[in-house]
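Our preliminary data section would be incomplete without showing what the modeling component actually yields. Below, a chain of 447 amino acids is followed by its predicted structure, encoded as tokens that our downstream tools consume directly.
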Amino acid sequence: MVIKNSTVYVCSNCDAQYPRWVGRCSECGKFGTISSEPSIVTKTKNISNMPTAGVVSLRLGAIKPATRFSSGLSEVDRVLGGGLPQGGVLLLTGAPGAGKSTLVLAVADGCGQSVLYASGEESAEQIEQRANRLLIKGDKLNFTTETNVQSVAQAVRQSKCRLLIIDSLQTVVSSETDGAPGSPRQLKAVLAELVGLAKMEQISVLVIGHVTKEGVAAGPRTVEHLVDVVLALESLERQDIRILRSTKNRFGSTEEIGVFQMEQGGLKQVNNPSVLFLAERHSGAGSCVTAIQEGSRSLLVEVQALVTRSTKFSYPKRATTGYDANRLQLLLAVLEEKVGVRLGYNDVYVNLAGGLKSRETALDLAVCLAMVSAKQKKPIANNLVVFGEVGLGGEVRPVNAMEKRLQEASRLGFKQAVVPKLSDNINLPKGLQVSFVRNLTEAIEWL
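Predicted structure:
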């Protein structure tokens, strides 16, 4: 029973709600985006006539896991945790030109399932030209330019496809909701319809979404809450490398990454990223190879450091690319206080080669040794890999997955490794000489 009508004020940019009108939205910071909307509050007096909710048992083995099918790309399957989940809605975001449409076309061709591709941004001719460039036959690929989500849902039921691709979310509208395409109200209504369609028909829905200038998914945060998986396709500073990450995954881990290389024929999977990141390694002073862990995958990357005389400015400059700047300040203080390496009057620059970004603490030891190498103008051996966390006392702490990191180093032909001292024994790879250190002083003396 309807008991009253009230008015709320809603931001058209981020969908934030206010009890009264304000000139500036406190959530997104936009001016002039607040407008009034009627809100109908209902209350049911008699609950005895309400239907009983369905209940299932959660005892072990009572519910079957979500059924999946392969995307045809092992790097995508790795990030998703085993393939495309039936009944799941996936949101793929990325900057313009990152290769989102190219990636979904490769998935549509490789999954081996019947696919419906709904695009409100490109015509059939444009999609066909891209498919021809990617050598995609499209035997099981159907295409439509329909932007009404209800009409697309009807086409899905008639075609009985197993994968629905929406390109893009900001161009699709729902006939049951007012508002322009891409508005917060339309985005929520369209996604709610797609989530219901995926659950009822047990299909996978892959939706391409726009991003803001900050690099996050455009629209209200409700968009990310409604979907099951949020994927981000990132472009590194090295223009041909793409990293696929999962920031939300109800069906698997969010720690895995997929690595691709953009070529003339589309996105090519990189099954051995360590070789790619070490391809043009600098062999002079200030270069050190380390091992980082991304999910179940170990990657070898080069840490570069440059130490120069301080400029005329009173405060020396510290700059990083791909590494946490605050962490660098901490390591500089530890080097000066605990080891006696004076860098207070030097400009220091640290870079992860290849444009990769990582906040893993296992980089600490390699960053410190690279800075010492750059300061003393003495190169580090090319066949040496270093990793470990550095504490405020100058101690070198163990990190996770040490055995996997060492195995990756051995597989790529490295002969020596400097790692933290462990209390438990691990299986050391054959042919790799491993030296255990307790603190920064021991590591520098060993070098």
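The first strand starts at residue 2 and ends at 11. The two ends are 78 Å apart (CA to CA). Preliminary results of this kind motivate Aim 1 of the renewal.
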